[in-house]
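Might I ask for a little of your time on a matter of protein folding? What I wish to show you is a protein chain and, alongside it, a tokenised description of its three-dimensional fold. I should value your view on which stretches of the chain appear to form regular backbone elements. You will find the record immediately after this paragraph:
***
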Amino acid sequence: MSSDVTIAIRRDAPEPLPPTAFISDIHSNLPALRAVMDDIASRGIGRIVCLGDIVGYGPNPVECWKLVSEKCRTVIRGNHDQALDHDHRSNFHPRAKNAIDLTRRRIII
């Protein structure tokens, strides 16, 4: 048995993706979102993907929506975000329904 190892190098291999941060379940919590964004920036990560639920529960839906829109390369809408313009609240807890109703009055998507 030979102990030789052959390594093949593809010259046409695509460039690796840059470091990416994934965030989710912000639920209108602006202080927490700012802290996370500051931590991401301190690590030199320039690509951010939001996996949804920007709004809901917390007091700052508009500010969170704007910050995510400015900083995230990709945003996937979560069920709380979708409930803003579609009535998908039938399985929501009453507190969540109330948060969506209040947010609808404050945010324009």
About this structure: The chain is about 40% helix and 10% strand.
